[in-house]
Design goal:
By secondary structure, this protein is an all-beta fold. It has one helix and 26 strands. Helix content is 3%, strand content 45%.
Length: 300
């Protein structure tokens, strides 16, 4: 089941990773290219090569249809940038509070940003980076870093927000009313509204991913107890693939340990990824499977 790939010319970040150990994808049938955000921001090809990197750490990001990369950057106050593949900045917003947690390009061209601090909020930026909408969030104020994570605007115009320390996922209307919420067994990091109305939630330190129906009932879940080798270690990033499989990032995995795991609905591991980079993968966007680009909007 295990194979390592080191083919072709490698960019500088890939050489640095290989200097400390292997970059590998493990499967007999499946390969993926993907964007990884975290202390190292990079795109990895299906054969394990780092084919693009950005010189700052990030918390969230997207490869856009035009090939540019949209990133929520870590660091003091945080920032949002959209960059070309040669790292030219074409959009930039600098945070005004403690940090920026997440980012999402919206239909019509605006950009959604979640900002943590004394005034936790969602912002929408226009194409020039100007704030055109602000939505206050109801969250604890004691620890800004634990206020919210992968906030997303839904097709119905509402906003889905996982509040970590409060252990709750809330759906807000554009005027800030909470119209749906679900308590979670551990801190929610990723919340994804699926096409059938269910919500897929990654529960960080609980090493747990759950799927709940609109009533808040758990209809599916996976933990280390379900998986050979117990590969989950801080379930931050989660993505539901078009084939129904789920990819989970293990943010606290150490160098050389499994950092991404793909499982089927019946909890069979079909693909894993590991490398020896010093930092983990905060969130992931799977871009293709066996060289074929994923179709439709990424559920992440």
């Amino acid at each position: 089941m295990k194979a390592c790939f080191y083919r072709g010319a490698l960019p500088l970040l890939s050489l640095a990773l290989l200097a400390t150990g292997a970059v590998s994808q493990e499967s007999t049938k499946t390969t993926h290219s993907f964007l990884a955000t975290g202390p190292q921001t990079r795109i990895v090809s299906g054969d394990g090569q780092v084919i693009w990197s950005y010189p700052r750490g990030s918390r969230d990001g997207w490869v856009l249809p035009n090939g540019n990369v949209l990133l929520a950057l870590a660091g003091e106050k945080g920032a949002v940038v959209e960059v070309t593949r040669d790292n030219k900045v074409v959009l930039e917003y600098t945070g005004t509070q403690h940090e920026i947690d997440t980012v999402q390009r919206l239909k019509g061209g605006n950009t959604l940003v979640s900002e943590a601090g004394p005034n936790p909020r969602l912002l929408e930026l226009d194409k020039s980076g100007k704030v055109v909408k602000e939505l206050p969030l109801t969250s604890q104020r004691n620890d800004p870093h634990m206020q919210q994570r992968m906030s997303r605007k839904l097709p119905n115009g509402n906003y889905l927000v996982p509040h970590l320390w409060d252990r709750v996922v809330k759906e807000y209307t554009p005027d800030g009313k909470v119209v749906w919420e679900v308590k979670t067994p551990h801190m929610p990091f990723t919340a994804i509204r699926l096409k059938d109305g269910n919500t897929l939630i990654g529960c960080t330190w609980g090493n747990l991913v759950i799927e709940v129906n609109p009533k808040g009932e758990t209809v599916w879940s996976v933990t280390n107890d379900d998986l050979e080798g117990k590969p989950l270690n801080d379930c931050c990033g989660v993505q539901r693939l078009p084939n129904g499989n789920t990819v989970i990032s293990s943010y606290r995995a150490k160098p050389g340990e499994i950092r991404l795991t793909e499982i089927t609905r019946d909890k069979k591991i079909v693909w894993t990824y590991r490398d020896d980079a010093p930092g983990g993968i905060h969130h992931v966007q799977i871009l293709d499977t066996n060289g074929k680009p994923l179709k439709g909007a990424a559920m992440r």
